[in-house]
Amino acid sequence: MTVTELIVRLTQAPPNAKVIVRGYENGYNDVFELRSLFVRQNPEAKWYDGEYEKSEATTGIEAIEIYGENKISE
Question: What are phi and psi of 7, to 5 degrees?
Answer without folding.
Answer: -60, -45
